[in-house]
């Protein structure tokens, strides 16, 4: 008899279902808000959250991660929707999904190993800040009762887990505050105030746009941005969940899975999306979900809640959901990274990379920009640091006819540019030997520098011999030596 899947166990099923329900409740107002940012009907964001979550539950590479309509994608598609309409937006989502599939199949996920830890920390901290600041509009120009409800919600969210984890704190807080506002007749902003909820199922179809070169030229830049932003946010979120759960996920599958989910979403008239860090943290940390079932149920619950139970969902006070998201932000932020003891211990360059990632991400509300700048700063600082660890020492032969130079370190464009100035061409004897046994040649810049050194010695009648190259350096040197312009 085949073994029963883990998610069919009653205890696991309960955890996954309850966590999926809490995630769905948090998804609804955000999907509506992201629809407003994108300039489209709330149905477009809500249907995207349903189709993204359900599809990625089957094709994604990271169990328990939540994908839905996101603010990052909304910011990307907003100009296209505003200037050309929702049909062109959907066409861009379809093309963006196709690009993600191609990128996934060619192995773009393997580039994740080049992300420094400081960029990852900056990414996490920036997301926490964005999650927190995204809740502030719900706390401005509102009745004083909103703040009272928020305070009670935070007390429940902080205190309940210390008493029992049998019931998720977010679900209790939402139910308690909703029940109070309905029974007491308290008038505060609710989910229903954010926009009209759909009363029908999404319909399969194609966008009403001309399928010609002009349309492709129009939507291609937006589609490429959708693909890149979605992959960066999804892969970074997957890595974060890997660390939290001490498990490994299939990043390549997640990459093309995001593409499949966006294509399905586009066919059902959704605005596209990617992994959501806030809802994923609710699912994994607060709900303790670990399987694909929670992701699937989150999408199903979104559709059921907004279509069949729209009137009930509409009366949930926004204060309850704001409290949940604030606690998600607090739990997401890496507080250890800003402790004075950590900052004193950490190299200044590592802190600079983290700060750059945070500042750019928060300033632009674009995770792709933040991660790209963080990686660029890390590369520049690393190259600058490594460039200064190349050392050249010299020893003159006792008879005075030969001088030996020993070069140690990593030779590449940043370090080899100064290499040519480390030799005494005018005073060296008739024979010079450069020993590279403690060095490694990495690029054409170094080969060009060695060619320049040889040219300078030959112009003075000095015989130069280069020895000690390892296999990789020798192959690279022999292939390009004497063939590079400007090597003299």
TrEMBL record:
Family matches, as InterPro entries: Membrane-Transporter-like, SLC26A/SulP_dom, STAS_dom
Endpoints of the signal sequence: none
Domain STAS: 392-477
Transmembrane helix recorded as keyword: yes
Compartment(s) where it occurs, according to its Swiss-Prot or TrEMBL record: Membrane
Membrane spanning residue stretches: 43-59, 88-112, 119-138, 144-164, 171-191, 211-232, 291-309, 315-333, 353-382
Topology in membrane: Multi-pass membrane protein
One Pfam family named in its UniProt record: STAS
Organism domain of life: Bacteria
UniProt keyword Membrane present: yes
Keywords attached to this entry: Membrane, Transmembrane, Transmembrane helix
Protein name: SulP family inorganic anion transporter
Organism: Pseudonocardia abyssalis
